[in-house]
User: What shape does this take?
Amino acid sequence: MARLAYHPQTAAAAGLNASKRWATSLGIWGVGAGTAALLLLSVTPLVKREVLVKVPVLGGYYEDKTPASDKPF
Assistant: This one.
């Protein structure tokens, strides 16, 4: 028969254990939400110019190569 033992925990130890359990899940959800936000906002000029152009590998894809004479505004 298994015996159960009571081990009291301090508040700091309980908080640390809870944060360890939730860190991976919250990290995955955070990366997913950030990716979705960039995908939805990638059509706005401010996000393109300030964020996406500065990404090292993908920056060339988001650069605006349209000549100034062809832009209406």
About this structure: The radius of gyration is 24 Å. The longest helix spans residues 11-41.
